[in-house]
Amino acid sequence: MTGARERSILRPTGAQPGPPPPTWWARPWHPGVWCGVVEDKQPTAGELFDLIWERLADLLGTAATATLVRRATKRARAEALPTVIVNHNTLNYEYKVPESWRRAAETNALRSLRDLAKELGVLLTRLTGPVVVEQLEREPRFRQSGVSFVEASDRT
After folding, report:
1. Range of the domain at 107
2. What domain count does the chain have?
3. Element (H or E) spanning 107, and its range?
4. Disulfide: which of 13, 72, 97, 148 matches 119 by Cβ 3.0-4.6 Å?
């Protein structure tokens, strides 16, 4: 599995199969038995963008997410930004991130993602007020990677 995140999932014997808990959170699967996920590395810019897309699509739908990402990429001053593809026949909304965004320790990719996140934050604040941006800002993986949707001067 090249490029896949290595993780170790700890579950008590007899636990029901299902998705692992979020990587930033350890919780008891059963009272008194603590289990969690151990991350071996920081997420790539591509993985963080996947998370942005997923969160926005859950909150706003894929059509709005595609529109916002497309507008934010036009406004961002960064190089090598994602491409949003709309298939009008089936109304599928897809995106493609540059290959460099899938490589670990790619500082330029992370810098581009941060620029894109700021532009998304501006658009989201204009359209939804602070609600969606505040939800995105609560995601620990964004905070740990320095991805913010608000300018430092706008924080309260």
Report:
1. 45-144
2. 1
3. helix 107-128
4. 72
